[in-house]
Amino acid sequence: MAKSKATEWLTEEKLIVLRGWARNGLTDEQIAFNMGINVSTIYEYKNRYPEIAEALKESKEEADLAVENALYKKALSGSEASMFFWLQNRQSARWKDRRNISIGGEESKTITVKLVDMSKDEE
Question: What does the domain layout of the chain look like in residue ranges?
Answer without folding.
Answer: 2-77, 78-116
